[in-house]
Design goal:
147 residues; mainly alpha; 4 helices; globular
C-alpha cells in the first residue's frame, strides 16, 4: 500500500469519526421527526391516498426537523437561506423514500402502517449527508456575509 493511499484512508476515517456525533444527534432528531411524520401520515391517510399522505406528513415533519437540526444537530442558527435550502436537501431523502414506500407497499405487499418506517430508514443516510452539506454551507455563507 502506498503512503498516499494510507493517508487518504486515514483522512477519510478521521472525517467519519468527526461526523459521528452529529450523525447520532441527527438520528435523535430523526426519531422525533419520524414520530411527528408517522402521526400525521396515519391521520391524513384516512382522508387522502397514502402517497399524498406521505408527502403532506413529510413536508410538515421537515420543518420541525430543520429547526431541530439547526439548533441541536449541527449547532447553527436557523436562517432564511437555510430554511429555503433545507427542504430542497430533503428531496434526496424523498427521492429515496417515496419509491421505497411504493415498492414496499405495492410490490412487496407490506402494510401501509409499517412500510413508511422502513422507507424513511432507507432514506436516512442520504438525508443526513445532504442536510449536513446544506446547513453547514449555509452557515458559512451567512458568516462570510456578516463579516
Amino acid at each position: 500500500m502506498h503512503d498516499g493511499a494510507a493517508g487518504s484512508v486515514m483522512t477519510r476515517t478521521f472525517a467519519v469519526a468527526r461526523a459521528l456525533p452529529a450523525f447520532l444527534r441527527f438520528l435523535v432528531v430523526g426519531a422525533a421527526s419520524a414520530g411527528v411524520y408517522y402521526l400525521l401520515y396515519q391521520g391524513s391517510r384516512q382522508l387522502v391516498p397514502y402517497l399524498v399522505a406521505h408527502a403532506l406528513a413529510l413536508s410538515i415533519a421537515m420543518v420541525a426537523a430543520y429547526l431541530l437540526n439547526c439548533r441541536y444537530t449541527f449547532r447553527v442558527r436557523p436562517s432564511l437561506r437555510g430554511m429555503v435550502l433545507y427542504p430542497l436537501s430533503n428531496l434526496g431523502g424523498f427521492a429515496v423514500s417515496a419509491p421505497a414506500l411504493y415498492l414496499l407497499v405495492d410490490h412487496l405487499g407490506l402494510s401501509q402502517l409499517i412500510a413508511p418506517l422502513l422507507a424513511q430508514g432507507i432514506a436516512t443516510p442520504v438525508t443526513f449527508l445532504v442536510a449536513r452539506f446544506v446547513l453547514l454551507r449555509s452557515a458559512r455563507h451567512r458568516d462570510r456575509s456578516t463579516g
